[in-house]
Amino acid sequence: xILGVYWYFKFPEKLYQFRFFTFFEGRGxxxxxxxxxIARVKVTDPEYIIQELEILxxxxxxxxxxxKISGQDMVISIDDHLLFDYHFQLxxxxxxxxxxxQAVWLDDHTPFTTEHHQVFTPEREPFIPIEDKFIQITxxxxxxxxxENLSVRIDCNLPVSQKQPFIGDLKEICHNENLSxxxxxRQDYNDHCNLMLFxxxxxxxxxxxxxxxxxxxxxxxxxxxxxxxxxxxxFGGLKYYPTNGPHIELITDKEYIINPISTL
Length: 264
Hints:
5 helices
């Protein structure tokens, strides 16, 4: 599973600029459509462009790339429900290739009948189901440059006296499980505390793409119930909902994860 900074509803403004590609936002809910980046261009030699894209795609194995050709006209698109920096870096390089080959931008009204269709499929990681019911996968509101963030959230409670060593053990789990961001909210009641824990990563780029084994992570957290008087869920009602925080233990790309967009 890939956790971290992504884009779906809005374009990463001020981070990327494309000459040929247009961003199409995803639609959640019942529509459930991926976000996408599409270029409609006229080129001198479509076959040469395909060759260049095939070489480029060998570096970006985790992306889907769709190419349609009609004479000298091409429609090049990439889409996903989570567009990471990794995807935008690929599109930046495609944009450079099209610029070097003096491609001409075509608008949406240009007639196009597909004569040849080529798809480069992504290299898929084996699907690992989330077996632990205490793990929630959550998104976020918009952060810097319209970024969102995909995180693991765990709600739990334990004695206040055990909170600090428990947090220390969770940091160690993060180091072992390829997680670079860990923060939490807390609320004490008597000698107990409710915790709302968040685990994620920062921006996912070509040279630092991070895969998380969610089953392994969940197993390590579950074993903490043998060491601490730990219970999943919150205790004491809404009055003791954890709102004190965020308390940051590990962080990278903070402005894309923690800070609300209104403070930037």
